[in-house]
Amino acid sequence: MSRKFYYVHAPVTQPRYASPMRDVRDQQLFRRVHEHDALHMRRLADVVIASILLAITAPLMLLVALAIRAESPGPILERETCIGRGRRFQMLKFRTIVHDPEHTIPVWARKATQVGRVLRHTRIEMLPQLINLLRGEMSITDPRGSPSILD
Question: Most-buried pick from 2, 3, 43, 84 (CB within 10 A)?
Answer without folding.
Answer: 84
